[in-house]
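Give me structure tokens for this 158-residue protein.
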Amino acid sequence: MHNHQTGYDLGAYIRQQFALDKHDIRTYSPLTLAYIGDGIYELMIRSIVVEQGNRQVNKLHQQASRFVKAQAQSEMMETLLPLLSEEEVQIYKRGRNAKSYTTAKNASVNDYRRATGFEALMGYLYLNGNIERLTELVKAAVTDYTPKEPAGTETRNR
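Here you go.
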């Protein structure tokens, strides 16, 4: 049981359980990093929302969506950029500048590109097993971010 243990590497555990080889993630494309980063970031946000208390799934989804949409991730990068190491900035920029063949449904091109950089950074930290740094950055981002509320919705404290 790994209850509230720091330093726990989910990726390493998955590789071990499924007998997967570890690869040099420096060779991964920024879009591959963003692909896994999108998933791990959403899992973190969903975990935070669920731990705030049991609610209707629709309410959980609405709360989480405010933090995982491209515009939110783009705005969060303003908070994160000054906190990043040179290596982390380079990963972010590689993701931001990657040529993606898809676009977000409800985001500007610039927000979508910055969000892709955000997700690439999340993926890079996750695949490197740097869960503490990943969590530190997500915490800084969501603590400083104020979602724009749709008209007529209530705000819940994080």
